[in-house]
Amino acid sequence: MAWLGRDRLFRLMPFIMVEALFITLLALPFLLTIYISLLHWRANRPFEQAMFSGLVNFEAVLADPEFWAALGRTVSFAAIAVSIELFLGFCLAMLLAKETLGRRLYITIFLGPMMVVPVVVGYNFSMIYVDSGPLSQMLAPVLQPFGISPRIRWLSHPTAAQAAIILADVWQWTSLTFLIFLSGFSALPQELTKAAQVMGASRWQIFWRIELPLLKPVIVIAVVIRSMEALKLFDPSVLLTFGGPGTATQTIAFYLWRQVWQFNKFSFGAAASILLLLLFAVVIYGGIYLLVRERTTLRHEGNG
Asked: For the chain, what are the domain ranges?
């Protein structure tokens, strides 16, 4: 075992362990998914009897209008939810960026929803969205003077169900954007702010000319992280509406789940997942490119 004590081998050990984990946890399952996507295999027949079908599954996915409808629905859900979460998280972080009375208490409260298990969130919102539930009762004083019934069918009307899904996601994940932006505000150099104050700059000028440009990389990070998660929206769709009414709240993740576990179309689901990986990778790498560009710009401005 003397070979274990060699310096060269010792330096390579972390690299070997990382590569082994990469091959075991990522490369092998990914290659298996690609292989399954090229077969014609359902769960009602043994895997060894699956026949090679080439790109037939990919053609079937691209020709399925339900796939594109679910993808478009997911993108719209993610765009609306992430936009609201970024706005609310940024405003809350800006309010608590300075030392104020009860700051730690407020931060703890605002971070609470992020810690709740998604199943619990879905169950709680399913009770809130009951026709005669607390949300309808809260809206009753506002709606009744206009002759509108407060018994809104939150989970059985297509538009209301979509709004319900987005609201549940916003409630839980605004905490994450708040945490990211709060870290960004805490890392801002105070010297620039104090120098601007000495020169007579207003609070709005300081925010617009100093703080916001420095926060651009943080904003890009928040957009990328939340977009990645929002595009995988699954729990609220299943727990609140089960994709209904009809397919009004069927996200792309729920669509894949149905194809694989309800219809047993394993090869079809594998092909669809690979196509989604390619589509989402373009979005993710676009966000990473913007992040690198913003950091490079800030570095050049700092050196200048």
From this structure: 72-230
Q: Please give the CATH number for the structural domain made up of 72-230.
A: 1.10.3720.10
The answer to whether 172 and 114 are in contact (CB under 8 A) is: yes
Cβ within 8 Å of residue 240, ≥6 positions away: 122, 125, 126, 129, 155, 161, 164, 165, 168, 249
Residue type, 192: L
Question: What are 177-207's pLDDT values in tens digits?
Answer: 999 999 999 888 888 888 888 888 788 888 8
CB 139 within 8 A of CB 150: yes
The answer to whether the Cα torsion of 20, 21, 27, 32 is positive or negative is: positive
The Cα–Cα gap between 158 and 212 comes to 38
Side-chain-side CA neighbours of residue 190 (13 Å): 3
- Work out the end-to-end distance of the chain between its first and last CA atoms, rounded to an integer number of angstroms: 55
